[in-house]
Write a sequence for this structure.
């Protein structure tokens, strides 16, 4: 790993950090926002879903642009958009503009889903790709933990209904530094090469690999195989659903959608669920002091639960290249279902037993989701598509996943009120088991495989199977 490779990695990692920080900090800030703008349950849902809806749009509309304008260009643009809307969010004058600005922040974070993954994975050795991509992705969990901690510190030092503004404002200066740093990275050589810009690709590869002493002394790029190279006419959005890419699209999109139902349903509303399950329900709140007191307690509980997100992603980093993406994703989905079921049992008990069950269930869920589907779906989405449509494929997968995130964020407050915590957890456990099944049925293993060959190897298997069927028919 050269200095440039590490620079790219760190700057991409902080993009995931900001996502965890902003999205999960909203869970702590939401009751204060509700108090300031006098929101009802439906408006709660819109605030919770706004940034996730933005991520959906950003991943689909902007993430795919990295295939057209380049990985670096969008890597910079997304952070500029994030900075602008983050500043506006911290000074939101009304409920309407709050939702608009949260949506804008989400658009920037959505673009980062495919772009950050691709700029890392196309710049580092295949043997360590899983560890490094997931290591960067793990900063989302770190951001979630820091978001809870920031919420707690701000509330303790500024016990006021406007404290949520300072929570978001704490990210402005760090985001500005990351934005500046992204101007000084290399463009993806594989992207340049796929667009026929061979000389530029070689120059950027030489910059990427610059070290002292110099090695390699010269860089010359050659296409290893033209068998599966996609013609420019096959590089549009429709290419994701053709015979070559359909299996990859299903594997990258559907399990991620099912995983986001649970991760954002639990992650965004953990403070609310903990409060409801442990008896600190909204009906006991009579004034702003009560709200702040409850949120301080909830922030402490969320921080404890979120520690397991970090432990889980550390496990994913250590095992992804050894065990493989598919086994970890299947195991993780099953573990998530088990954690949600354990948490659901808490409603049948009181006192210490109730507290132990709900914390044990949520902590198991957080550990297993980051060991498995939350990490592996992100990793697979940037690996199973060919270079020509990798940005579109990863962007579509992230956008499709965020349909699940938006749905659960919007419906969670309503469902908690209508069907209760237990039934909601039962439903999310069922979607986790379905995610395990679909992962296994459409599996494509990419651990340790060159990005170009990961896609080609799956196609080769398909061609060989077709040839075998032809010989049998003959």
């Amino acid at each position: 790993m050269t200095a440039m490779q590490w620079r790219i990695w760190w700057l991409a990692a902080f993009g995931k950090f900001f996502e965890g920080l902003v999205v999960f900090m909203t869970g702590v800030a939401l009751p204060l926002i509700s108090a300031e703008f006098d929101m009802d349950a439906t408006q709660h849902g819109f605030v919770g879903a706004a940034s996730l809806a933005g991520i959906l749009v950003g991943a689909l509309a902007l993430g795919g642009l990295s295939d057209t304008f380049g990985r670096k260009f969008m890597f910079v643009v997304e952070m500029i958009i994030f900075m602008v809307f983050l500043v506006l969010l911290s000074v939101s004058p009304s409920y309407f503009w709050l939702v608009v600005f949260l949506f804008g922040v989400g658009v920037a974070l959505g673009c980062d889903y495919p772009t950050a993954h691709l700029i890392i994975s196309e710049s580092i050795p295949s043997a360590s790709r899983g560890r490094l991509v997931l290591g960067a992705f793990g900063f989302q969990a770190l951001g979630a933990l820091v978001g809870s901690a920031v919420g707690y510190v701000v509330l303790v030092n500024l016990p006021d209904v406007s404290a949520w503004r300072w929570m978001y404002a704490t990210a402005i200066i760090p985001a500005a530094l990351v934005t500046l740093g992204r101007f000084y990275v290399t463009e993806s050589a594989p992207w340049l090469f796929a667009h026929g810009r061979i000389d530029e690709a070689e120059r950027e590869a030489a910059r990427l690999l610059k070290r002292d002493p110099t090695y390699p002394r010269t860089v010359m790029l050659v296409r290893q195989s033209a068998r599966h190279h996609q013609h420019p006419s096959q590089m549009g959005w429709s290419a994701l659903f053709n015979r070559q890419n359909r299996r990859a699209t299903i594997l990258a999109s559907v399990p991620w959608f099912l995983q986001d139902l649970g991760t954002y349903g639990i992650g965004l509303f953990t403070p609310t669920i903990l409060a409801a399950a442990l008896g600190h329900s909204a009906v006991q709140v009579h004034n702003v002091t009560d709200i702040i007191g409850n949120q301080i307690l909830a922030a402490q509980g969320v921080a404890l639960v979120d520690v397991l997100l970090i432990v889980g992603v550390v496990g994913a980093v250590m095992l992804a290249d050894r065990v493989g993406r598919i086994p970890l994703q299947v195991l993780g989905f099953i573990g998530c279902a088990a954690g949600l079921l354990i948490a659901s049992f808490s409603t049948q008990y009181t006192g210490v037993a109730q507290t132990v069950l709900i914390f044990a269930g949520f902590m198991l869920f957080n550990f297993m989701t980051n060991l498995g589907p939350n990490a592996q779906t992100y990793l697979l989405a940037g690996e199973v598509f060919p270079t020509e449509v990798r940005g579109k494929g990863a962007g579509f997968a992230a956008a499709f996943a965020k349909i699940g995130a938006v749905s659960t964020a919007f419906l969670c407050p309503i469902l908690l009120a209508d069907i209760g915590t237990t039934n909601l957890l039962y439903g999310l456990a069922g979607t986790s088991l379905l995610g395990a099944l679909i992962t296994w049925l459409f599996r494509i293993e990419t651990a340790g495989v060159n990005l170009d060959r990961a896609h080609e190897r799956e196609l080769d298997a398909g061609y060989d199977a077709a040839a075998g069927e032809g010989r049998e028919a003959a």
Observations:
- The chain has one domain: 3-211+259-466.
- The CA atoms of residues 36 and 429 lie 35 Å apart.
- The two ends are 52 Å apart (CA to CA).
- Residues 288-323 form the longest helix (36 residues).
